[in-house]
Write a structure and sequence with these properties.
- The mean pLDDT is about 90.
- With about 450 residues, the protein is of the alpha+beta class.
- It folds into three domains: about 200 residues, no CATH class; about 100 residues, Pdz3 Domain; about 80 residues, Pdz3 Domain.
- The two termini are about 20 Å apart.
- About 25% of the residues are buried.
C-alpha cells in the first residue's frame, strides 16, 4: 500500500506540472496563430493510452511518465520530424513567426512552472502557515548521531547559529543543508553554559551529501524519559515499576533522557537491567527488569510534544505571496549552488544525481497534503530550472538559438539546430539512464 501511495503521489504531481508546463507553450503558440499538432501528457512511443482529435490538435496521454510535449508545426524538436524542412515555410508554422514570438512560446513553459511554484508555496503558507519549534524551546539540548558527533556536535549542545545565520527555528535538515550548500566556516553552540564556536571542515560538505549519509539528520531534540503508561502484563509492571516513578539510571548509566535509556536498553536485549527509580514518596529503590528481544520493557513514555511548544506563523492572502516567492527563490538559489559545487567537484555527481525513483521516495508512504504540495512546488521550480539549462533538446537550448538570432539578426541554419538537438537529446537520454542506474544500484 505504501508503494502505491508513493506512485500515486508521483503521477498526480507530474501530471499537474507537465500539463501546466505544456500549456505554457500551447497557449502562446495559439495566441500567435501557430499550429499545434499534438498536446501530450507523458510520452507515447509506439502507442498512447488515450488520444482524441479536437480541431487541428491531437490531445493524448502517453504510457511513459517521464514528461510530456506539445508538437508545434514547423519546429525542430525531440520528435525529429524533418519532412517540413524541404517545403516552403507556411504562415502557421513556428519557423515563420518573428523571433520574439518564438522566444515567448519557448519561455512559456518555464515561466508557468516558476509562477506555479510560487503560487503553490503561497497556498501552503496561506492554508497551513509555517509551524516550527523555536530553538529556545529545545531546553534539554540535542542528541547527536555518529555523524553529528564526527562534525563536532555533542549530546546536550544547544545550536545557536550556523555561520552568520541564527538558528532560531529548530530544523536539523536546515543545519545539514547549510553545511552542504553554504560552506560556513563555523557554527556556534551553547555547551555547559558557554558559547563554543566549532570550525567546519570543507570536506564535511561532500561527506554529508553522499547517498550513504542522506538519511542522517545529525541530531534531534532531547526530551526527558518520563513514563506515560505501563502495560500491566509487562515485566516492568510485574517488577514494581509505576507511572509515577522517575527513572534515574539503568545499569548505573544516566537515564534522564529518552536517548540515554534507548542506548542502554538496545545494548541489553534478551537480558535483565537494573533500574534506579525515584518513588513519589521521595525514596529511591532498585528494580530488576527483563528486556525482550526487540528491546522493549512494556513501558510508554510521554510524547515529545509534551515538552515543546510549537509556534505557527499565519499568513494572510497578500502576505503569503511574497513568502511563497521568498521560499521559491531560496530553493532555486540552493539548487544553483548545489549544481555549482557538483561541477567544481565539491559534491560528487554520482552521489547527488537521482532519477524518478529518488523523486518518488521523497513523497513518503503516507498521503499528507502539506508534504505533497511542498514536493510539487519544489519540483515545479526544479523543472523550470532544468528546462532553462542551455542544452539543445530542452527549452533552454531553443532559447539560446533564438537569443542568438535576436542579437545577431541571423537565424541559425535548420541543420545546425537539428544536429544540435539530436546531440542534446542523446546526452539527456544517457544522463537519465545513468541516474536510473544509480538509483537501481542503491536499491540493492
Amino acid at each position: 500500500m505504501g508503494t502505491l501511495i508513493i506512485v500515486g503521489q508521483l503521477i498526480l504531481s507530474l501530471s499537474i506540472l507537465v500539463t501546466l508546463h505544456e500549456c505554457g507553450h500551447f497557449f502562446p503558440a495559439k495566441w500567435f496563430k501557430t499550429k499545434v499538432e499534438k498536446f501530450y501528457l507523458f510520452f507515447d512511443p509506439w502507442f498512447s493510452l488515450f488520444k482524441i482529435k479536437r480541431g487541428e490538435t491531437e490531445y493524448g496521454i502517453g504510457w511513459l511518465p517521464l514528461g510530456g510535449y506539445v508538437k508545434i508545426a514547423g519546429m525542430i524538436d525531440e520528435s525529429f520530424d524533418k519532412k517540413h524542412l524541404d517545403e516552403e515555410p507556411q504562415e502557421w508554422e513556428f519557423r515563420s513567426k518573428p523571433a520574439w514570438q518564438r522566444l515567448i512560446i519557448m519561455l512559456g513553459g518555464v515561466t508557468v512552472n516558476f509562477i506555479l511554484g510560487i503560487l503553490i508555496f503561497a497556498g501552503i503558507f496561506y492554508t497551513w502557515g509555517d509551524s516550527y519549534i523555536p530553538t529556545s524551546e529545545v531546553k534539554y539540548g540535542i542528541h547527536v548521531d555518529s555523524l553529528g558527533y564526527e562534525i563536532g556536535l555533542r549530546d546536550g549542545d544547544k545550536v545557536i547559529s550556523i555561520g552568520e545565520k541564527p538558528f532560531d527555528k529548530f530544523n536539523p535538515n536546515r543545519f545539514k543543508l547549510e553545511i552542504i550548500i553554504e560552506n560556513p566556516e563555523s557554527y556556534t553552540v551553547l555547551r555547559d553554559g558557554k558559547e563554543v564556536e566549532i570550525p567546519v571542515d570543507p570536506s564535511y560538505s561532500s561527506m554529508l551529501s553522499t547517498q550513504a549519509n542522506k538519511g542522517y539528520s545529525l541530531f534531534k531534540y532531547r526530551y526527558p524519559y518520563e513514563l506515560a503508561e505501563i502495560d500491566e502484563k509487562s515485566p516492568a509492571y510485574a517488577s514494581g515499576l509505576r507511572v509515577e516513578d522517575k527513572v534515574l539510571s539503568i545499569n548505573g548509566m544516566p537515564a534522564t533522557y529518552v536517548d540515554q535509556v534507548t542506548k542502554v536498553i538496545t545494548e541489553n536485549k534478551n537480558n535483565s537491567v537494573d533500574l534506579q527509580v525515584l518513588k513519589p514518596a521521595g525514596d529511591t529503590s532498585m528494580i530488576n527488569m527483563s528486556v525482550d528481544s526487540d528491546g522493549r520493557m512494556g513501558v510508554f513514555v510521554k510524547a515529545p510534544a509534551t515538552f515543546f511548544n510549537m509556534e505557527t506563523e499565519k499568513y494572510g492572502l497578500l502576505e503569503s505571496i511574497p513568502k511563497g516567492a521568498q521560499v521559491s527563490w531560496d530553493f532555486l538559489s540552493g539548487q544553483l549552488k548545489a549544481f555549482g559545487k557538483m561541477f567544481t567537484g565539491g559534491i560528487k555527481a554520482s552521489e547527488s544525481l537521482g532519477s524518478v525513483i529518488s523523486i518518488a521516495k521523497e513523497f513518503g508512504t503516507t498521503w499528507e497534503w502539506d508534504r505533497f504540495w511542498r514536493m510539487t512546488a519544489s519540483l515545479s521550480i526544479l523543472l523550470a530550472f532544468l528546462n532553462l539549462l542551455p542544452i539543445p533538446g530542452l527549452d533552454g537550448g531553443h532559447v539560446v538559438f533564438l537569443l542568438y538570432e535576436v542579437v545577431s539578426g541571423r537565424k541559425p541554419s535548420d541543420k545546425v539546430v537539428e544536429y544540435s538537438t539530436i546531440v542534446g537529446f542523446i546526452l539527456l537520454v544517457i544522463l537519465m539512464i545513468f541516474a536510473l542506474g544509480l538509483d537501481i544500484s542503491r536499491l540493492f
